[in-house]
Amino acid sequence: MLYNLLISLVEEFSALNVFRYLTFRTGLSVMSSMIIVFLIGGPFIKFIQSHKITGPIRDDGPIGHIVKKIGTPTMGGILILVGILFGTLLWADLKNPFIWVLLMVATSFGLLGALDDYLKIKYNNSNGISSGKKIILQIVISIIAMYLLIKFGNNDHLENLYFPFFKNVTIHLGLFFIPFSIFIIVGSSNAVNLTDGLDGLATVPVMLVALSFTLICYVVGNTVFSDYLQIPYIPDVGEASIFCGSIVGSCLGFLWFNAPPAKIFMGDTGSLSLGGSLGAVSIIAKHEIVLAIIGGLFVLETASVIIQVISFKLTGKRVFMMAPLHHHFEKKGWAESTVVIRFWIISIILALVGLATLKLR
Predict the structure, then answer these.
(1) Structure pTM?
(2) How far is the C-alpha of 134 from the C-alpha of 113, rounded, in Å?
(3) CA distance 206 to 202
(4) Phi, psi (5° rounding) for residue 73?
(5) Tens digit of each residue's pLDDT (9 = 90 or more) over 308-342
(6) H/E/C letters for each residue in 92-126?
(7) Cβ(306)–Cβ(258) under 8 Å?
(8) Span 134-157, pLDDT tens digits
(9) Is 361 part of any domain?
(10) How open is the CA angle 195-288-342, to the nearest 5 degrees?
(11) Which one of 79, 158, 272, 294 has the lowest number of neighbouring Cβ atoms within 10 Å?
(12) Would residue 296 count as lying in a domain?
């Protein structure tokens, strides 16, 4: 919005040429998103508290966990969504179709999460929308997103699957691209949702993944860097760096309020939106497998739930004291801050490994 306005004035004011630089606008996106979340965060939390908008806490978790978190406001993901929309709409090129697909995914998954949070609050239980209905709605949103991406996105590599560490290994997915993409977006969305169980636990890993994909989108959309790194060049994908930057800024601002002890939870409003957005970005940038590496913490959390369910159904025994994995370590006696910080460290290591794949081919 502001970018398109400023660029239209370049002939009259040559200094405005600086806004043509993607790196400059990405930095502005990070700062804008962070500042808006900072500014509205305090008043928003007071409003939520005054209306007693608090989510139910799992009653089968660690006792200390239940006691400390009961009464904490939820739906903080609204703050994150506002930050993402604000930063992206201000500084992205709104003529770029990739931007609109990403905004559509972020907003749609956010609204779905908000409905889920609302039902949990209304009926004072942790059920919300049934799992089956939620998955169906996520699939529908993903199908619409992929339709828009195929119809309007200028991406000749869209149906290809590229493997990290190998420069010449590619699989053309063909018609299988659609179900594969749905799996990535829905899986990513639910993986972040499962990880969001402790103060700040999901926020920092999401920020690290978004920061990594800010760089990935930039090099994928740059002919010089993509050629040097021997990765596919995709025109206009660099603009997605603005969107990723807005996620980083929004999460930075939100972490101010979400850091232990959290003043507000992001809820499904934030976790579903962030996870779905990261999945969509990885598809646009054709780095889906790298997403699984950088976001390996989300994969581990999801795998712990799957293993727990399968083990209990087949043998009647549980592998973990409690799933997802972060609750297992809480049950073992780890302090919440210990679990969170150690999981952050794991996320940093995985982000470095994922970024290393750009060069190690």
Answers:
(1) 0.94
(2) 9
(3) 6
(4) -60, 155
(5) 999 999 998 999 999 899 989 988 989 989 999 99
(6) CCCCCHHHHHHHHHHHHHHHHHHHHHHHHHHHCCC
(7) no
(8) 999 999 999 999 999 999 887 778
(9) no
(10) 35
(11) 158
(12) yes
